[in-house]
Design goal:
The structure is a single chain. By secondary structure, the chain is α/β, with parallel strands linked by helices. It folds into two domains: 191 residues, no CATH class; 161 residues, no CATH class. The protein is built from twelve helices and seven strands. Strand 6 and strand 7 form a beta hairpin. Helix 7 packs antiparallel against helix 8 and helix 10 packs across helix 11.
């Protein structure tokens, strides 16, 4: 069974009928642990959001939570476990649990839940006997939930599975801190969609070119590996001068790779759009984790993020699908943090590709 919760930070609540059984089943309530994790994500959004991106702290971002029936959650596949050395172990464990399941990535949906919505109507039904810290929430039959931004009414919601079900259905147990920032990653996608709808739409549209992208070309992969290593070196550079030099090398390598591959303009756009879309969400995720750790006076210790850095340094060209753009976009955003404090507040350049903003910060416009 799959469930989802939709949170919207508006005050006015419609009065709707109470949820009744559907096919002999009633919508199950969220576990208290799931509510606590969602509450923590909202707290971090409010307290640290503007340090991540101007305006994020007070953005009214709906949230959807759902429970996949079985298999490793798709957010982990997109976020890196598909390329992790633990993937084989995870699949073996799933096969031992359910040897008849030939599709361990499959999902099944049943319900999704809505809280404090301003304009929702039927088929949303109010759940009786439970609340989210004093606020009622609603339910309706779910339909193909996903880890991303999802349009609900006239607002985009950040959509993510629940921690409790992720950890009950996967041999890879997520610590609560990682789950909270994974949820904030999807909330940032909704922030992108609500703040810059045209930019968000154009970024999504480039996925139609994915089959044309030369992922498996060995020379192309090697060149990508070099770009990742240089970006990693720039982030670790001891001085700003060294970081700037590494940043210039990255842009030069990128231009040479594209020229050698005779990469079409559309595929160059494919890279840039996905770095903006997924790279910035990965950036928000990792920054939230680091800032939350700093606020507690502890050292960030997230194995998933450590693995992200290993892949950036050693095997960026070997990342399947859009995962390389998560990492290359994140790294460029972090380098921009180091080189200029105003890049996120410059409205004229805000929606430009990250590499163009980096070139401007390095004095390499038109590189």
């Amino acid at each position: 069974m799959s469930v989802a919760l939709f949170i919207c930070t508006v005050a006015k609540q419609q009065i709707l009928p109470q949820a009744k059984k559907s096919g002999g089943e009633s919508p199950p309530a969220l576990l208290q642990t799931d509510k606590e994790q969602l509450k923590e994500a909202l707290r971090l959004q409010q307290t640290l959001g503007d340090e991540i991106w101007p305006g994020f702290s007070h953005a009214a971002i709906p949230i959807i939570l759902f429970n996949p029936l079985r298999g490793i959650p798709r957010t982990l596949v997109r976020g890196g476990i598909a390329n992790s050395p633990l993937r084989g172990q995870a699949l073996q464990r799933l096969q031992r649990v359910d040897p008849t399941d030939v599709s361990p990535w499959s999902f099944s949906e049943k319900w999704e839940y809505l809280l404090a919505a301003k304009t929702m109507s039927l088929p949303w039904l109010q759940i009786s006997g439970d609340d989210f810290f004093g606020q009622p929430y609603l339910a309706r039959p779910a339909s193909d939930p996903e880890y991303f931004a999802v349009l609900v009414g006239d607002k985009w919601a950040g959509s993510c599975g629940t921690l409790s079900h992720m950890n009950s259905s996967s041999p890879l147990k997520l610590p609560p801190g990682f789950y909270v920032v994974a949820l904030l990653h999807e909330m940032f996608h909704a922030f992108q969609a609500n703040s810059w709808p045209e930019r968000f739409r154009s970024a999504q549209e480039v996925y139609r070119l994915e089959k044309e992208y030369p992922y498996s070309d060995e020379v192309f992969m090697t060149a990508w590996n070099q770009e990742g290593a240089i970006l990693d070196a720039a982030l670790k550079a001891a001085t700003e001068e060294s970081a700037r030099e590494q940043g210039k090398q990255f842009l030069s390598l990128r231009q040479k790779r594209r020229q050698a591959a005779k990469l079409a303009a559309g595929l160059i756009g494919f890279e840039c759009e996905l770095e903006w879309l997924e790279g910035l969400a990965k950036y928000a995720e990792i920054r939230f984790y680091d800032l939350a750790a700093a606020a507690k006076g502890t050292t960030p210790n997230n194995p998933f993020h450590s693995w992200d850095r290993v892949r950036l340094k050693n095997s960026l060209g070997g990342q399947e699908g859009d995962m390389r753009f998560y990492l290359s976009g994140y790294a460029q955003a972090r380098l921009l943090d180091r080189l200029t404090s105003i890049w996120k507040s410059n409205k004229k350049s805000l929606l430009r590709p990250l590499e163009e903003q980096l070139a401007a910060a390095l004095g390499m416009e038109g590189h």
